[in-house]
Amino acid sequence: MAKQPAKPKGADQILIEQLMLNVGRISAVIEERGKNIFVQGNILSKDEINDYSVEFLELFVMLLQGGAKVDRRSAEFKALRQFFTTMSQQIQVRGGSMEEFVRYIQFMQHVIIEGLGEEGELSGQQLKETLLLLAGVFNDIILDVYRVYLEQKESTIQAQQEELREISTPITEIWDGVLTLPIIGTLDSSRTMIVMEKLLERIEQDRARVVVMDVTGVLAIDSQVSHHLVQMIRAVGLMGASAILTGIRPEIARALTSLNIELGDVLTRSTLAEGLKEAFKYLNVQVVAGH
Amino acid sequence: MSKERIQGMHLTPIGGAVVLLEPGDGLDPTDADAYLEPLASYLQVQEARRLIYDLATVPVIDGVYYDWLKSVHAICAICGVEMVVAGMTPSAAYALAHTLNETPPFACALNVDRAR
């Protein structure tokens, strides 16, 4: 019986063999590069780099053992992606550069490709298949790493926005039943919405009776800003609390009269201290100096 | 305590010449005339001096509902009864403040206890 010609090796087998034969060298090169990038920048320790290199090679071989057609839904592929996702998060948390990390991933790919050239036994078709397999896997990994990076950035931005919102509405319960709200900067529609929402919630939560709104930090006032102020004061009144407006500077008062804006029956005081005195008076609270 | 039920609202004397009004689902604020006379009659029978209108169960106060509240306030004023609106939710106060062009004629309180 004529001997059947040997079936040409698939891309997965080629890569597995190459990795098995050169695992020490590949691992050493990857570790060395990792140390140069991450250890010098104090992002990862030497031990961590070593562990990551070994784990990467193990996971990659496990993925290749599944066949030349990489199943992107397979547990092995998910494990490899998870590995890079975790590494990416760790690098980000420690202040590492995402660009450097992606370059490091590309470097891993290059090391494996360079190893292929050394064998010199591969046909053009085998080489093409192997390169396509590598490109597919590493592109997916890089996309994942960027997705995680963007998610992390987005959550950071959201947290910062939330922090800014908190800072822009520093509502403080300065006394039992007395809230103070210093308004600094411009009071546009969107900010009024946020401030008002927070303020009304705090009135309900703290069962506030008086709200002292201080506009010392408002540099300019126009009809829209004053309209927003009146809306806010009215909403405070609807919640059953009394609003005291303080810190209207002379130029603001002048602007209000020039704009023919009436604050109606809004209780105003010149300073925050005066406003607080008024609030205490309203609550029948007397502040007496100690001995 | 004698409870009175005018269609769409519960009226409860809660002591000290104070009557609590709790609007129900059946209340039609567009038909103020149907309620005002029985309400005035009840307040007079109870010799009420204050009416607490509990808004805790009213999620939104639009222009129509606000006009209804003003009508109740007007009839109360004629009967010598002070009307206090209580329990407006933050979202209702927020929405109403955006539509109002005037200071409401009635007093407001955080809740029924504060309105007493």
TrEMBL record, chain A:
Species annotation: Thioalkalivibrio denitrificans
Domain STAS, first and last residues per copy: 168-283
One Pfam family in the UniProt entry: STAS
Top-level taxon in the UniProt lineage: Bacteria
Keywords: Phosphoprotein
InterPro entries: Bact_StressResp_Reg, STAS_dom, STAS_dom_sf
Keyword Metal-binding attributed: no
Protein name according to UniProt: STAS domain-containing protein
PANTHER family, A to Z: RSBT ANTAGONIST PROTEIN RSBS-RELATED, RSBT CO-ANTAGONIST PROTEIN RSBRC
Alphabetical list of SUPFAM superfamilies matching this protein: SpoIIaa-like
Residue ranges of coiled coil: none
Annotated transmembrane regions: none
UniProtKB/TrEMBL annotation, chain B:
InterPro entries, per the entry: STAS_dom_sf (IPR036513)
Gene3D superfamilies: STAS domain
Protein name, UniProt field: STAS domain-containing protein
Native source organism of the sequence: Thioalkalivibrio denitrificans
